[in-house]
Amino acid sequence: MSNRDHWGSRFGFILAATGSAVGLGNIWKFPYITGTYGGGLFVLVYLVCIALVGVPVLIAEVIIGRAAQQSPVDAFEKLAHEGGNSRSWGSIGWLGVVAGFVILSFYSVVAGWAMHYTFLAGVNTFAGMDANSIAELFGSVFANGPLNIFWHTVVMGVTVSIVVGGVSGGIETAVRFLMPALLVLMAGLFIDGMLQPGFSEAVSFVFAPRGESMNAEGFLEALGHGFFTLSLGMGAMLTYGSYLQHDDDVPGACFAIAIMDTFVALAACMIIFPVIFTFGLDVSKGPGLVFVTIPVALRQLTGGPFLNFVFFALLFFAALSSAISLLEVVTSSAIDRLGWTRKKATLWVGVAIYLVGIPSALTGSTDVFGASFEAIFGKSFFDSFDWLSSSVLLPLGGFFVAIYTGWVMPEDRRRAEFARGSKLGNQYPIWLFFIRWVSPVAILIVFLFTVEILPRSWLHGS
Ligand code: TRP
Asked: Distance (Å, rounded) from C-alpha 356 to C-alpha 339?
């Protein structure tokens, strides 16, 4: 165990974990679901989910990783064994490995769109196009199978080439570049957003708790997205925690991570919505929101081509630092369980996830298999993978993490792991209350509605 790779510093961990949390979830997904559910009230519900459910589960995951110094499956098996409990707790880790495949396979495709748009902006494609053709462009990119396969290949290749370098040498080195770059790009676009006439309308849309378009589905979505955006429920934060030293402060780091993640999500709204309101575009455009509205709107501004380039580069950087963490979960499992070298594990896992991602990459091109899949399940591969992960696998994983940490892990160990190295150590009873009661109960209720064991009609008040 002593030869296990570790972060160069605790700050390296915070950067990497923030890099995992801040991703497509913040910049691509959060603005479009905020738009779909009508703004302020949805945002408020989301913030409550982050604070009451997300942060306690985040702390639990990192604690388990740091205590066990193992990848997810081995970590749960080891701690359960040491505490005199069944090794079958290791199944939580397996759930995470499955979720890693599912998420990274579609994540890589969206990251590919970001790369493609960065490229298009770089060669100044949008300047010569009118608004309608830009809007139609997203549809044709979505439908272009070979193009999506191409970028999916590039994204997976870049991700593998970083993860293969190891924890401090590969991942930490990459996030030390990616995260500051992200911050600078965001700051620039934020200032640009503030200067636009639609800024005040955007502020009121995102922060005034009005709820015309908010509904029960929005509550379910808010919690699921809380897990997705904090990278919870599949052992990603657990894996990153396993590279911490035993006396690193966990609760403090987790608060910092959650705050930065929330900050970036809100800042992304403050970049995207001013543009939308300034040009009178539609806020509820769904997954195409940033890919349609941003290029349409920015081309009308001076400096537009450059801002487009900056925006999509930002999106890609954010996606990359998250993709790294998704790959690392499965890679570290292969290293720990199968005894493979990092090089072998990264390559094979990368190839396997790449293959699983091909149907997602082809989702928009109407191939026969995809069409019949959609006919049977009512959703495309892509939407099914998104739904399966953020609405089912992640909440389920988070639920069992909360149950294990709150109810199964021996009290003295749990207390010691929470408090060691942290100034927040005496807040232990508060965290324990949340991880025992608030998080699991909230997740369970939402989950039962999601899979319709509890009828949705109860939520609609009729
Ligand atoms: N949190 C990332 C985002 O918001 C996505 C992500 C990275 C993730 N690693 C994860 C989601 C692990 C769930 C689990 O885009």
From this structure: 23
Ligand 1 centroid distance, CA of 124 (Å)? 31
Alpha-carbon Rg for the chain in angstroms:
21
- Asked if residue 35 lies in contact with residue 289, where contact means CB atoms within 8 angstroms, the answer is yes
Closest Cα to atom 6, ligand 1: which residue? Answer: 231
26 C-alpha to center of ligand 1: Å?
10
Indicate the top mutation candidate among 29, 95, 228, 396 to test ligand 1's pocket, ranked by most ligand atoms within 8 A of CB.
228
Cβ proximity of 56 and 49 under 8 Å: no
**Ligand 1 midpoint to CA 379 (Å):** 22
pLDDT for 214 beyond 90: no
> What totals of helices (H) and strands (E) does the chain contain, helices first?
23, 0
Q: What is the DSSP-derived secondary structure letter of residue 368?
A: H
pTM of full prediction above 0.90: yes
Cβ proximity of 45 and 288 under 8 Å: no
- Give 69's DSSP letter: T
pLDDT of residue 284: 85
The whole-number pLDDT of residue 370 equals 65
Provide the Cα torsion 72, 75, 77, 83; round to 10°.
Answer: -140
For 51, phi then psi, to 5°, come to -70, -45
pLDDT interval class at 327 (50, 70, 90) = very high
Q: Is 373 helix (H, G, I), strand (E, B) or coil?
A: helix
Secondary structure letter of residue 166 according to DSSP? -
Q: Does ligand 1 have an atom closer than 6 angstroms to the CB of 222?
A: no
Q: Is 229 in the pocket of ligand 1 (CB under 6 A)?
A: yes
Contacts of 200 (CB under 8 A, 6+ apart): none
For residue 229, the CA-to-ligand 1 centroid distance in Å is 5
Q: What pLDDT sits at residue 1?
A: 47
**300 CA → ligand 1 middle, Å:** 33
